[in-house]
Design goal:
Blueprint lengths: L12 H10 L11 H13 L5 E6 L2 H10 L7 E5 L3 H4 L4 H6 L3 E5 L8 H9 L11 E7 L10 H13 L3 E6 L2 H8 L14 E5 L9 E6 L6 H10 L8 H11 L3 H21 L5 E2 L7 E5 L2 H9 L5 E2 L5 E4 L6 H15 L1
Parallel strand pairs: 2-3, 2-4, 4-5, 5-6
Antiparallel strand pairs: 1-7, 6-7, 8-9, 9-11, 10-11
Helix pairs in contact: 1-10, 2-10, 6-7, 8-11, 11-13, 12-13
Length: 344
């Protein structure tokens, strides 16, 4: 009953098999290998565009920080939600990698930035005012840090506002697969077709050992040389890049990543349905992916913890439960069999 995080899950067996295949013989270094070339070709098909460049890294923090640094100068700012991962959980990495870029925080229910909030922020900025830190970039998160989704139309509306004010758009897609599985949209519809310039495409939470992809779209591909230079300087240009690319290829093959994300979402839906009917329990956010945020009586939380269930108290209150590609039916059933007697 480990609902602590989807990063607690093991790597998918097909990832391990792909690594073994990639380990056969020598291959060129620093991304000049066949696995990385195959990954770029696969992504161009998946995202329905030839205007795409990709750089694999081992962590989501590296993906976000490097991506933001390519678009935000040290004298500018990134607009993001107050609960965004780049604000809450990355220990100042975006500020460090940009050389001093500032995060400007916006509010909105359930982890989403409303279009009217962004419009008001943009209308109030004055780049000519020397005492102000003007934004260069809008960063969105999908799934959000509250487990909710932005639809393609919502991203499009926010991107139009950002682009009209001269801002680029970054999407933190640590759980991009979970958002797609929920919406039934295509990767293109939820990224570049909706105005996203750079995507942090997460696969670690969907079965990789550690693999995140920084993907540049359209005119932003002109920044690929800068991205590589920043990756090299920051220590994110491993000589044997083929092992990162092999993980991505294994998960993207045949749509496995979406299948795994869909399983995680379904388990979270089951968990939420059971919790929502319990006395004293209240869902804090809509369950639209693989995360459940819920208020529980302290006695119930203790009962679950004593029975071996793993989950986290959340800073905003209540508790977070996360399902993964490896969450079995038995874990959800055992969890609910413990909770229901405890509630009577």
């Amino acid at each position: 009953m480990d609902f602590s995080s989807d990063t607690s899950a093991p790597a998918h067996p097909k990832v391990l098999e792909a690594l073994a295949r990639a380990n056969a013989g020598n291959a060129p270094s620093y991304g000049a290998d066949p696995e990385t070339a195959a990954l770029e070709a696969r992504l161009k098909t998946l995202f329905e565009t030839e205007a795409l460049s990709v750089w694999p890294v081992a962590s989501g923090t590296a993906a976000n920080a490097l991506a933001l640094a390519c678009f935000c100068p040290p004298t500018s700012a990134v607009l993001c939600h107050r609960e965004a991962h780049i604000e809450r959980d990355e220990r100042g990495a975006p500020e460090f990698f940009t050389g001093g870029g500032k995060l400007r925080l916006l509010d909105g229910p359930d982890g989403r930035i409303p279009a009217e909030t962004l419009a008001a922020e943009l209308a109030g900025m004055d780049p000519s005012f020397v005492h102000e830190t003007p934004p260069a970039l809008l960063s969105l998160t999908n799934l959000t840090e509250c487990g909710t989704v932005y639809s393609a139309s919502e991203i499009s509306a926010l991107s139009r506002l950002a682009h009209a004010s001269g801002l680029s758009v970054h999407l933190d897609g640590a759980r991009f697969g979970n958002a797609l599985a929920r919406l039934g949209a295509s990767p293109a519809e939820l990224s570049w077709k909706a105005g996203v310039d750079v995507l942090s495409f997460g696969l670690t939470k969907t079965g990789a050992i550690g693999c995140e992809l920084i993907i540049l779209f359209g005119e932003a591909t002109a920044r690929f040389a800068e991205l590589q230079a920043r990756a090299k300087r920051a220590g994110h240009m491993p000589a044997k890049l083929r092992y990162l690319s092999a993980q991505a290829n294994a998960l993207l093959e045949g749509g496995l990543w979406l299948e795994l994300a869909g399983h995680a979402n379904a388990q979270a839906t089951r968990l939420a349905a059971g919790l929502a009917g319990l006395p004293g329990a209240q869902l804090r956010h809509p369950v639209e992916g693989n995360e459940v945020f819920v208020t529980l009586p302290d006695s119930m939380a203790r009962t679950l913890s004593d029975a071996g269930a793993k989950f986290y108290p959340w800073p905003e209150g209540g508790y977070r439960f996360v399902c993964s590609w490896a969450t079995p039916d038995a874990a959800v059933e055992q969890f609910l069999s413990i909770v229901y007697p405890a509630s009577r």
